[in-house]
Amino acid sequence: MSDFRLYNTLTRQVESFAPADGRVVRMYTCGPTVYNPAHLGNFRTFLFEDLMRRALALRGWSVHQVMNLTDVDDKIIKRAQEQGRTITEVTEPVIEIFHRDREFLRIQQAEAYPKATAFIPEMLALVGTLVERGVAYQADDGSVYFAIARFPSYGKLSRLDTREIRSGARVLQDEYTKENAQDFALWKAAKPEDEATGAAWDSPWGRGRPGWHLECSAMAMQLLGETLDLHCGGIDLIFPHHEDEIAQSEAATGKTFARVWSHGAFLLTDGSKMAKRVGNVFTVEGLREAGISAAAVRHFVYNTHYRKELNLSDQALEASTEAVRRVGEFARRLRDPATLERGGTAGLAHAADEALGLVRDALFDDLNAPEALAALFDFIRKGNAELDRKGGDRASVDRAIEVFERIDGVLDIVPLAVAADAELVRWIEERLTSRREARIRRDFVESDRIRDELAARGVVLEDGGGSTRWKLG
Ligand code: AMP
Ligand code: ZN
Fold first, then answer.
1. pLDDT tens, residue by residue, 407-444
2. Domain boundaries, the chain
3. How far is the CA of 42 from the centre of ligand 1 (A)?
4. Residue 175 has pLDDT above 70, yes or no
5. Who surrounds ion ligand 2 at CB < 5 A?
6. Which listed CATH number (1.20.120, 3.10.620, 1.10.3470, 3.30.1330) goes with 323-414?
7. In ligand 1, which atom is closest to the CA atom of 34?
8. Cα-flanking dihedrals φ and ψ of residue 441, to 5°?
9. For 5-278, which CATH superfamily applies?
10. Burial label, 291 (beta-carbon count in 10 A; 0-12, 13-18, 19+)
11. How far apart are CA 112 and CA 115, in angstroms?
């Protein structure tokens, strides 16, 4: 079995990776803060994590992925207050949009999407342990803080010296109540706006709400155990978020929290980090409106290594649209009845075997997707040349199809064979949204009715991998 190698932020090295039990990779991925639809920068990170889970599966492991939904935080509370709503009223529609966008981009469904607000007892238990162990304290402002000075290895992930962290500290308004400016809140004492928006809970330290870092530690350990195989996120989360997750978890359990830490680089627009506040945000909705396919977005993202910054541009998206058109053509050509009838040459099967070997080597070498793509396009070039020659046997075409499907099972870059009829496509997507909503309501009668309605117009649905694909049958 081939080695699987990954860059570990903790050691700053590419290392051999395998799940601790040799079977299931227990993977935690920090999810979206659901106050606004996620932007394409967020989705670059989620696509990197989708590549990760599919590459791990190609290697033969099962994957158990947890992605949290941060449904209580300052921005959500502010939004709720402005709109005179509760935090749940703000977050629920955004969670819906997140899943719709995720499905559009063909990001496989994680095994769990825990909401922070559903794990308050687990978070309080963790705070209790940390207070008992003397690494957390309640300050005069009523909030409970983690004392970084009492956790000697604080800073090991970000490699920031704690003295540096202290001297470079941002001065917070309430800092005088803390022992140390950089001590971070585990539990935040409730303010009137928290109470007004449904963002306050009872606790042994009074009414309050959880801190963001606490949320991930509690849910990760509850759902995946005290030591995870792999913890992923965007590079901006290394400090303070992941550093603080390590501090809380390891101070409570005395065990390693995550064996490997993996971080994806940023998506930039015109050279600056994509973020809601800079106004250079691109949404999945915007892509759909511009007629850019999920296949093209995936190709665009995977054509750059996940640890390198990536610049979003029209030219790059156009080039990816053209590239995936070729992938789609090849996929159709392989399955064309005429091809199946004529059969393929030995050279076709050989090109397929070679491509699979190269793709596996590339993906297992720190997720080198650009190299995997290069191997796929080489296969397409050679495969087309072989198919232009005289026929051969059916087995070589079957082998080419099988290999193509395995490679595309990771990259997922075949564009939908859409009829030119954009009106029909819009109708299908609207029907699919209604069907998904019906399924969320567990209204299976309605969901089956919509399936039949689609079938009547020749649309065949395939549910699987957490999403629904359609094709014209
Ligand atoms: P948030 O909703 O801000 O908590 O972010 C969700 C995920 O998106 C985190 O893993 C972030 O690191 C990641 N992220 C945020 N902005 C970008 C960006 N411009 N490019 C890539 N990833 C990002
Ligand atoms: Zn997190």
1. 999 999 999 864 445 667 778 888 988 998 898 888 99
2. 5-278, 323-414, 422-472
3. 4
4. no
5. 30, 216
6. 1.20.120
7. 2
8. -75, -5
9. HUPs (3.40.50.620)
10. exposed
11. 10
